[in-house]
Amino acid sequence: MTENEANRADLHKDPAKVSGMFDQVARRYDITNDVLSLGNDRFWRVATTRAVAPRSGQRILDLAAGTGASSVSFARSGAYVIAADFSPGMIVEGKRRYGHMPNLEFREADATDLPFADDEFDTVTMSFGLRNVNDPKRALRELRRVTKPGGRLVVCEFSHPPSRAFAGLYRFYSDRILPVVARMLSSNADAYDYLNESIRDWPDQRALAGWIRDAGWTDVAHRNLSMGIVALHRAVNPE
């Protein structure tokens, strides 16, 4: 594959292909997402930050952090935040934008084999990244391993609207409109075809909650955002 050739992942979610795909969209990733989500990504980020409830003195792992947009909102509280992602391109772009923040550290990391010690973090969070991991159940166990007893998990992920009427409207937007806009904005529009496929293939809210429980988390709960386009999952690592 040449440097300029588009890299497109598929539902096998080969880590090298997924990482390479995100490398290619890193520079315009945030602005493309803002347009394609019709600005909802800002609301989802605010809701996630409120669920994480970062405080000074805490250590927070923001996994699949991308360029660090969510990590910055946590770090502004005074918490020490590690923004981790398995895309080197995302890490480079994040450092370029936010490398000046003293309590924000960027690290390359694989969600299924995290390079962190047991019980290292007060809170672990992952936004729109669990769906791209080739073994998400293992990733949920790894997240629990690095979380202190009594610590919390917050996962914000695409889901399935419970309303059939709204689900149909959302599917029309995703299938017909989103690809056209993505081709206008993104350096790798094929990545957004994969986005649609991965969302369609992803389990619904209850199924993901079951995966979280099976990984050993307790007090598992979720709430829908934007009528169920996205679900915000929360859980606790038992003491």
TrEMBL record:
This is Demethylmenaquinone methyltransferase. GO terms for biological process: methylation. InterPro entries: SAM-dependent_MTases_sf, UbiE/COQ5_MeTrFase, UbiE/COQ5_MeTrFase_CS. PROSITE patterns: SAM_MT_UBIE, UBIE_1, UBIE_2. GO terms for molecular function: demethylmenaquinone methyltransferase activity. CDD domains: AdoMet_MTases (cd02440). The gene is menG. Its EC number is 2.1.1.163. Belongs to the class I-like SAM-binding methyltransferase superfamily. MenG/UbiE family. Pathway: Quinol/quinone metabolism; menaquinone biosynthesis; menaquinol from 1,4-dihydroxy-2-naphthoate: step 2/2. PANTHER family: 2-METHOXY-6-POLYPRENYL-1,4-BENZOQUINOL METHYLASE, MITOCHONDRIAL, METHYLTRANSFERASE. S-adenosyl-L-methionine binds at T67, D85, D110, A111, S127. It is an enzyme of class 2 (transferase). It catalyses: a 2-demethylmenaquinol + S-adenosyl-L-methionine = a menaquinol + S-adenosyl-L-homocysteine + H(+). It comes from Microbacterium koreense. It comes from the Bacteria. Keywords: Menaquinone biosynthesis, Methyltransferase, S-adenosyl-L-methionine, Transferase.
